[in-house]
Design a protein that fits this description.
Ubiquitin-like (UB roll), alpha+beta, binds FE2/S2 (inorganic) cluster, about 20% helix, five-stranded mixed beta sheet, about 120 residues
């Protein structure tokens, strides 16, 4: 089970929700189901509106590293992902700081998701 905490200046207080183990809901779907207002447009890794910053509450538990190709391309376009971070993720299992909520799935790790409330801001 993943414990996901959402935080944003657009929210009165942080919101913590549980993602069931084996769940394949993206962070964006989880946010919507819990009335957390992460901006989005395409839901498909194309627009970059749903940019989030992810921090791992227990740094040893990091399982949600796999990027989709779309996510990788869009994050690079936004200047939020370097070649070094791609290598760190794919070779050394070190997760990058920024992700797209419509592509990112938290599995067993506990994460804090930060977003500005502005499309593409994080
Ligand atoms: S909603 Fe468009 S990239 Fe996530």
């Amino acid at each position: 089970m993943a414990i996901v905490t959402f935080t944003s200046p657009t929210m009165r207080k942080n919101k913590t929700v549980y993602a069931i183990a084996g769940d394949t809901k993206t962070i964006l779907v989880l946010a919507e189901q819990n009335h957390v207002p992460i901006p989005f447009e395409c839901r498909d890794g194309e627009c970059g509106s749903c940019l989030i910053e992810v921090s791992y509450d227990k740094p040893t538990e990091r399982n949600a590293i796999a990027f989709t190709e779309k996510e990788k391309i869009k994050l690079k376009e936004l200047g939020k992902l370097t070649e070094q971070e791609i290598q760190d993720a794919e070779i050394s299992d070190l997760p990058p700081r920024y992700r797209l909520a419509c592509q990112f799935i938290a599995r067993d790790e506990d994460v804090t998701i930060t977003f500005t409330g502005e499309p593409g801001g994080a």
